[in-house]
Design a protein that fits this description.
Elements (H helix, E strand, L loop, with lengths): L9 E9 L7 E11 L2 E5 L2 E5 L2 E11 L4 E8 L7 E3 L8 E2 L4 E8 L2
GO molecular function: siderophore uptake transmembrane transporter activity
Membrane topology: Multi-pass membrane protein
Keywords: Cell outer membrane, Membrane, Receptor, Transmembrane, Transmembrane beta strand, Transport
């Protein structure tokens, strides 16, 4: 049974273009979208609702050689404010992550 306060549909698409195939070094580009259905909760006369939403992500990186790479990933690029869960009777609603960035360095020994 579907609980209206949790996501019913959640679709994710991520694409990457890796320019390192021939030389073992080079640029890495990526982008993604996460589309989620609307959710709601009711408690008496109170109705809390989150409409369907889409979140955009991007990644840029560089592979220096077979052992060393650096990548910057950005999520929720539009800084969309959204709930991932809504509970009307208990008021336990969870906000989704705001715009955020992560820098990853990898060194293979």
């Amino acid at each position: 049974m579907f609980a209206p306060g949790t996501l019913k549909h959640d679709a994710k698409l991520w694409v990457m273009r890796d320019f390192t195939k021939d030389s073992g070094r080079g640029l890495i580009l990526g982008g993604g979208v996460n589309v989620s259905s609307g959710i709601y909760a009711e408690a008496g006369d109170l109705r809390l609702k989150q409409s369907a939403y889409a979140l955009l992500s991007a990644q840029i990186g560089y592979q220096f050689n077979e052992r060393v790479s650096l990548r910057l990933t950005a999520e929720n690029l539009t800084d969309k404010k959204y709930h991932t869960r809504i509970e009307g009777w208990s008021r336990q609603s969870y906000f989704g992550d705001p715009r955020n960035f992560m820098l990853t360095a990898r060194l293979a020994l």
